[in-house]
């Protein structure tokens, strides 16, 4: 399993999942540029760029056909990889993925407003770390099971704020719409959606999710990452889905 994290997070998001299911799967958890242990790198912070990075990783490691697990921007990168290189992918798990909401003036304005919020980190606004805390506690990872991981992410507010700002600006661009690629993903897709997400709302992505030819949709507890916030429910859902994958 190759796991791709949400923007501003890192591969440690999947440590708990690897501990729980490591007896059955080999886990590879990447860190996007400038996040976790990865150094900063030139280039855009966008779903398209991260898709290129993910494809490069799969090709460089000469992995057998993998299961991709992508959360948020990592989900968008996984859609790109699965659509463009189906021979590398056995199945895809999408957790509150980017790219399925229809592009509109409303979504563009929303994305730009989020970018404005994270711009505070670059400007050195003293109250930003506390605002970032409230954002994560109330909107992104609100459930108690994610408390430990949430605190780790909150501690990186000033570092990751500028990266998250760039990502939100990229989400406002037309190329961030991955709906045309969804129909090209031929491998089975599990959409494990944290149903309390108030930022990337299911209502905006539902129609896009229906475009995957071989899809399974499960609504789970959580604000953005069910594998962190509702681990038992996620594991049951995932293991049941894995049994349906072709060899």
Which radius of gyration do the C-alpha atoms yield? 17 Å
For the largest beta-sheet, the strand count, sense and barrel status come to:
6 strands, parallel
Strand proportion, as a percent range, falls in: 5-15%
CATH superfamily of the domain at 2-103 and 176-242: Alpha/Beta hydrolase fold, catalytic domain
* CATH fold call of the domain at 2-103 and 176-242: Rossmann fold
- Could you give the order of strands across the largest sheet? 2-1-3-4-5-6
Residue share in helices?
40-55%
Describe the structure.
Helices cover 47% and strands 12% of the residues. It is built from 11 helices and 6 strands. The chain has helices spanning 15-21, 47-61, 73-84, 105-123, 128-140, 147-154, 157-171, 179-182, 202-209, 226-229, 231-242; strands at residues 2-4, 28-29, 66-71, 89-95, 189-194, 215-220. A 6-stranded parallel sheet has the order 2-1-3-4-5-6, with helices on both faces. Helix 3 (73-84) links the parallel strand 3 and strand 4 (89-95). Helix 2 packs across helix 3. The longest helix is centred in the middle third of the chain and has 19 residues, at 105-123.
Which terms summarize this structure?
alpha/beta; 247 residues; single chain; globular; 11 helices; 6 strands; 12% strand
Question: What is the gist of this entry?
Answer:
Helix content is 47%, strand content 12%.
How is this fold's topology laid out?
Layout: E1 2-4, H1 15-21, E2 28-29, H2 47-61, E3 66-71, H3 73-84, E4 89-95, H4 105-123, H5 128-140, H6 147-154, H7 157-171, H8 179-182, E5 189-194, H9 202-209, E6 215-220, H10 226-229, H11 231-242
Helix pairs in contact: 2-3, 4-7
């Amino acid at each position: 399993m190759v796991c791709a994290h949400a923007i501003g997070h890192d591969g440690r998001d999947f440590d708990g999942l690897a501990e729980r299911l490591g007896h059955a799967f080999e886990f590879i958890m990447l860190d996007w540029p400038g996040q976790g242990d990865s150094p900063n790198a030139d280039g855009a912070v966008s779903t398209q760029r991260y898709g290129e990075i993910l494809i490069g990783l799969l090709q460089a490691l000469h992995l057998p056909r993998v299961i991709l697990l992508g959360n948020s921007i990592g989900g968008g990168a996984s859609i790109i990889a699965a659509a463009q290189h189906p021979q590398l992918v056995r199945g895809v798990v999408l957790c509150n993925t980017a790219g399925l909401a229809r592009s509109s003036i409303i979504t563009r304005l929303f994305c730009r407003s989020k970018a404005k919020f994270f711009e505070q980190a670059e400007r050195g606004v003293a109250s930003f770390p506390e605002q970032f805390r409230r954002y994560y506690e109330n909107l992104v990872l609100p459930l108690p099971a994610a408390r430990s991981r949430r605190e780790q992410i909150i501690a990186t507010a000033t570092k990751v704020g500028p990266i998250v700002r760039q990502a939100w600006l990229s989400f406002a661009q037309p190329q961030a719409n991955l709906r045309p690629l969804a129909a090209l993903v031929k491998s089975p897709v599990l959409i494990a959606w944290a149903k309390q997400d108030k930022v990337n709302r299911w209502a905006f992505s539902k129609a896009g999710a229906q475009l995957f030819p071989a899809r399974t949709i499960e609504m789970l507890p959580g604000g953005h990452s069910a594998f962190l916030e509702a681990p038992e429910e996620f594991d049951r859902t995932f293991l049941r889905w894995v049994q349906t994958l072709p060899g």
